[in-house]
Amino acid sequence: MPNIKSAIKRVSVTEHKTMRNKMVKTATKTALKKFNTNVSVEAMVAATAAVDKAAAKGVISKNAANRQKARMARVLAKGE
After folding, report:
1. Distance (Å, whole) CA 55 – CA 27
2. d(Cα 43, Cα 33) in Å, to the nearest integer?
């Protein structure tokens, strides 16, 4: 454990950010799994929103978000 006040604060802030990032990533993964089990337009809309929110918050990169959305679109087009 750090002794310097600023280092103590950095540890605290990092813990909070890590927790937030985990929550956002988990929600994104859950939305993607729901889409994979139920391939439908509604599930894709929800998953796309979750992926876009994660990208906007900086949890995943914009390229990763676009790649996931493209994969979902390909699966949806193939299924219909």
Report:
1. 13
2. 10
Q: Map out the domains of the chain as residue ranges.
A: 5-79
Q: What digits encode the pLDDT tens for the residues 19-65?
A: 999 999 999 999 999 999 999 999 999 999 999 999 999 999 999 99
32's tokens: 């993607």
Q: Could you give the dihedral angle defined by the CA atoms of residues 58, 64, 70 and 72, in that order, rounded to the nearest 10 degrees?
A: -80
> Which residue type is seen at 48?
T
The two structure tokens encoding residue 73: 């679109």
pTM summary value: 0.85
User: What 8-state DSSP symbol labels residue 6?
Assistant: H
**Amino acid, res. 29:** K
Helical segments of the chain, H only? 5-37, 41-56, 62-79
CATH architecture of 5-79: Up-down Bundle (1.20)
Specify the DSSP element, H or E, that contains 52.
helix 41-56
